[in-house]
Specification:
- With about 200 residues, the protein is an alpha/beta fold.
- Helix content is about 35%, strand content about 15%.
- It contains seven helices and seven strands; from the N terminus they run E-H-H-E-H-E-H-E-H-E-E-H-E-H.
- The two termini are about 30 Å apart.
């Protein structure tokens, strides 16, 4: 799969196995609200809309969902981020740290706050999915070249079958989005379409 964009998408059941769990990485207002420095990128907003569709179906079929944001107590709590907006606004008490209500259901979703790029790094997500009997993890959220890539590699490393719906993840720039999907698709995950994942859940969950 040298170029996933030219791939003819087949039956998602070939790549997916058993019970599905979904992670939603950093769909916080910092990335989904255009008033913030990193917010409102077209690929990210497309991903929010498609992920909302996916999550509606997933909740109807009792699929485990874990959402996360990235937020810190203060400057000393930060790792060595090189992104100014992250250092200045990704705080626990900042309004941009709130999860986007388009995708977040507080009555259903499990929420963790992560401090590194991966949703799995020093969080209870793996143990929760093991308890729920999850075999395949669906990765959604942003940004493709950063936290999505890191979460995908960790999901693979923990032994989960890993699926990344291309239209459920986004980035600030189109080039890094496609480059990183191509790369993880060669090594760690299947790159699919939102509608294929929805069909799998409807038929198998």
């Amino acid at each position: 799969m040298d170029d996933y964009k030219n791939r003819s998408y087949g039956e998602v059941a070939i790549g997916m196995r058993g019970k599905v769990g979904i992670v939603v990485v950093d769909f916080q207002l910092a990335f989904t609200d255009a008033q913030y420095p990193l917010g409102g990128a077209p690929l990210t907003m497309r991903a929010v809309d498609n992920t909302a569709r996916l999550l509606d179906v997933a909740r109807e079929h009792n699929v485990p969902i874990v959402q996360c944001n990235t937020a810190y107590k203060n400057e000393r709590h930060h790792p060595h981020w090189k992104i100014t907006a992250v250092r200045e606004t990704f705080r626990e008490d900042h309004p941009s740290s709130a999860l986007d209500p388009k995708v977040y259901d507080p009555e259903y979703d499990i929420v963790v706050c992560k401090y590194g790029p991966s949703i799995f790094f020093q969080t209870p997500v793996v143990s929760y999915f093991v308890k729920e009997g999850v075999e395949t993890v669906i990765i959604t959220g942003c940004n493709t070249s950063g936290c999505i890539r890191a979460s995908t590699i960790d999901s693979f490393s923990y032994g989960f079958r890993t699926i990344v719906p291309e239209d459920c993840v986004g980035d600030i720039e189109e080039g890094p989005h496609h480059d990183n999907l191509r790369d993880v698709g060669r090594r760690y995950a299947d790159i699919e379409k939102c509608d294929n994942v929805i069909d799998y859940i409807k038929k198998n969950m």
